[in-house]
Amino acid sequence: MIKRSTRTILGTGPAAATLVAAVLFAMTSSLRAGALPDPKVDEPPTPGKETAVLAGGCFWGVEGVFEHVKGVREVVSGYAGGDADTATYRQVSSGTTGHAESVRVTYDPSQVTYGQLLKVFFAVAHDPTELNRQGPDSGTQYRSALFTTNDEQQRIADAYIAQLAAAGAYARPIVTQVTPLGGFYPAEPYHQDYLVRHPNQPYIVINDLPKIGALRRALPNLYTDQ
C-alpha cells in the first residue's frame, strides 16, 4: 500500500501550495524552535530508560525527527488512542477508530529529558495549532496528542503547554490533547523507518526532511546525525 505519496505533491495547483507550505513550515520551525522556552517543569536527568508516546500527523516524519534526537534509543511508529482490534493502517485511515498515528520513543533521561522531547515535538516535529490535520493530511488520526505513561509526564506536558500559551509562542491556540496512554500498537513493518528507507519519496522530501533540517539548525544541542 502506498500512503498518500503523490496525492497533492505532483502537478500544479495543490502541488505548489503544498510545496510552499512545507518550505514555510521549515522556515518558521527554525525560528520557533529558537524562540520556544525550555520547560520550567521537567523530569530529573537520571540514567535509565523511559518511553514517550506522541502523535503529530503522519508518523513517518515524526519518527524521522526523533530518530535524530540525542539520547533516543528507539522510535517505533504505531497507533494509540483506540482499541487493539482496530489498530491496523486500513482501519485507522478511516478516521473512526479513535487512534492517532503515533510514535513510541524510548530514551535515556540522562541525555534527553521528557521536557526536552516536548520542546522538539512542539518546535519542529509538527504544528500543534492545527486541529485534526497536519500538512496535506486531515482526519482525527492526524491529530496532535501526547499519550502520557505516568502522572509525571502528565504534569510536565500540562505545564509546558500552559507555559507556551502564556509566552504567546503561537499565533493560534495549541490544540494538543494530553491523555493517559491506554495502549500502543506498532504499525505494520512497511511503515517502520519509512523515512530512512525512502528518503527520495516525494512526500518525505516535501513534508518531512525539512523538519529534520529545522531540528539540526535550531536545536543543535539536541540533534544527532545517527
β-strand percent reads 15-25%
The best one-word shape is globular
- From the 3D structure, determine the CATH topology: Peptide Methionine Sulfoxide Reductase, Chain A
Number of strands: 8
Quickly count the helices: 7
> Would you state the CATH class?
Alpha Beta
Low-confidence stretches: 4-20
Strand line-up across the major sheet: 7-6-1-3-2-8
Radius of gyration: 16 Å
Specify the CATH homologous superfamily.
Peptide methionine sulphoxide reductase MsrA
| Average pLDDT metric | 90
Number of domains: 1
Proportion of helical residues: 25-40%
The chain-level structural class is alpha+beta
CATH architecture group name: 2-Layer Sandwich
Sheet having the most strands = 6 strands, mixed
Overview of the molecule:
The structure is a single chain. This protein is α+β, with helices and mostly antiparallel strands and 226 residues long. It has one domain: Peptide methionine sulphoxide reductase MsrA (Peptide Methionine Sulfoxide Reductase, Chain A, 2-Layer Sandwich), CATH 3.30.1060.10. It is 37% helix and 18% strand. The protein has seven helices and eight strands; from the N terminus they run αβαβαβαβββαββαα. It has helices at 14-35, 59-66, 89-92, 114-125, 151-167, 194-197, 202-218, and strands at 50-56, 72-80, 100-107, 133-134, 137-138, 144-148, 177-180, 184-186. The strands form two sheets. Strands 7-6-1-3-2-8 form a six-stranded mixed β-sheet, with helices on one face. The protein has a two-stranded antiparallel ribbon with strand order 4-5. The protein starts with 13 loop residues before the first helix and ends in an 8-residue tail after the last helix. The model is unreliable at 4-20 (pLDDT under 50).
